[in-house]
Amino acid sequence: MGKNRWLASVLSVTVLGMTLTACSEEAPSPEEAANTLAEGLAELDVSDSVFVESTAEEANTRLADWTSGMDPLKPSVSVASVEETGDGEAVATLSYVWDVNASDNDYRYDTTVALQRGTEDEWEVRFTSTAVHPDLAPEDHLVREVSPAPRGNILGADGEVLVTERPVWRVGIDKTRITEAELESSAAALAEFLELDPAPFTEQVLAAGPEAFVEAITLRQDSVSPPPVFQADVAEIPGAAALNSTLSLAPTRTFARALLGSAGEATAELIENSDGALSAGDITGLSGLQREYDDLLRGTDSVTIATATPDDVRSAPLFQDAGSSGELHTTLDPAVQTLAETVLEDEPSASALVAIQPSTGNVLAVANGPGSQGQQTALLGQYAPGSTFKLATTLAMLRSGSTPQTTVGCPAELNVDGRKFNNASTYPAQFLGEIPLIQAFAQSCNTAFINARGDVSQASLAEAAGSLGIGIDSPIGTGAYFGSVPDSAEGTAHAASMIGQGQVLVSPFALAVAAASIGNGSRVSPVLVQESPTPETASPSASASPSATQPGAAPLTAEEAATLREMMRAVVTDGGVQLLGSVPGEPVLAKTGTAEFGSEVPPRTHAWVVALQGDLAVALFIEEGELGSTSGGPVMKAFLDGLAASVQ
Length: 648
Description:
The protein is of the alpha+beta class and 648 residues long. It folds into three domains: 30-139, Nuclear Transport Factor 2, Chain: A, CATH 3.10.450.100; 154-326, Penicillin-binding protein 2a (Domain 2) (Alpha-Beta Complex), CATH 3.90.1310; 334-646, 3-Layer(aba) Sandwich (Beta-lactamase), CATH 3.40.710.10. 31% of the residues lie in helices and 24% in strands. It has 20 helices and 24 strands. Strands 6, 7, 8, 9, 14 and 21 form a six-stranded mixed β-sheet that branches. A five-stranded antiparallel β-sheet has the order 16-15-24-23-22. The chain has a four-stranded antiparallel β-sheet with strand order 1-2-3-4, with helices on one face. Helix 4 crosses helix 5, helix 11 runs antiparallel to helix 20 and helix 14 packs across helix 19 (558-573). It is elongated, with a radius of gyration of 36 Å.
């Protein structure tokens, strides 16, 4: 009896549970069908939806046709509302958003789609062209027409245009205008005319398609003979042509080339890494600021969206965005930059000149000589500063209690832990022995500054360098090396640091910042790219190794800077660059430096000169020079004389 009651109870619970489960199942809703459709439209694949009198495969074919002119874009689609309009009928409103270019102006609109309950109690979609766009006819399709925006300019000081669209010749072989038998001879003839290697260009021409224009070179129009003459000369070669075009260029081929960089057709690698932003034939930045700020300079394309018939008859625009081009503002002064490059043009080794306005920190020139072979020596070079670093050593000595008149010992030779340190071979004998610090600075007595190592610790030296901006990274809008000074060093390493050797490294830019800080009376934060977004590809300021000279370094005081300026003036009046005393205008202040490098005997030397004149700070570097005074002095004089002449 008990057993039967227990079985009855179990059966009752089971039946009740099955009844409750069956009752809890809800019929599919039109909202679910609308969401599934929206998700499919966003992927341009509606395979998960069910359609009235149509298969999903047929719906996908029509969807691909209707959106073919928008490729490769896909819309964002969401359900705005679903309204049941009758028994088994509903209307869904879908919201479309097409991200048509790089601007924030997206194309937005709503469509409506009819839904009806099918025979199997599921909601089916009545799929028509108006589900994609309310103005789209069944046989038409959406089309997006894109026009690239003109590439933005790069501006210099006072808004002067540095880089803009300038006329060029695209010179090459048009294979449609030549027989196959002439290809090889014409390609070789054009290459020789352009002073190029014929073999690779001929191979390129032969490999190109039968209707290709195979470009050999792009030339500035102002770099060759007058247009009619040049075009006629090229046209004498069968199949050759010089096509008139423009390209984003600086005033001259060499003007700030390593800094500004270049623009041209996107490479395969750039296209692959652009996430669809670049296509074959697009003009993009290839190097320098042109590459780092490519998104800004390339701007946003103008876009027009319309419907089109199978015969490509377009409707009135459904959507338009005019696009825009951005401008990049820099502090470069074109006249100062050009003069800096001119005074370096005969230097065979790597060289650089950086000019900064102390009162603002504006970088006026970043010049690299031809011996740098396109490398950014001025901003990124890492070299021992030699005696120019005595600016920092002297500051550390002033902070330890010395004054310009403090007597220091300047022997001809000094032995530190078995290593001999000497002065330059041309050091004047009358300034050996006990001399004032100001004369040790003016004559650049190495041994006097090394003798001060007992009063100036390595940490104090590193802090003094930081007070001048050496080793203090500061964002300037592109990569730069601010220098490195170890905060600990003993024995010969400490001794070498006192005269800018050992592990002390700077760039020409870093020394220009130090000079500008002395001219300003407080540490300068340099500025090169103004009010710009973070560059897309630029890395932070480059550093060879961590430096102790962090932003917490003691600030440079006006009194300290005034004393350093007094001592720099003595270099011109009494020291190694007295030739700078004849420069017109305000008095010139300077410091020279020679730094040994390499393992040769005698070692090769870098030549340095830093100078101040009025509201101008300049650092000059020559990789393989003699003394700073003999190799760098005349170049610095030519630069300062040129500036003086330009303002008269």
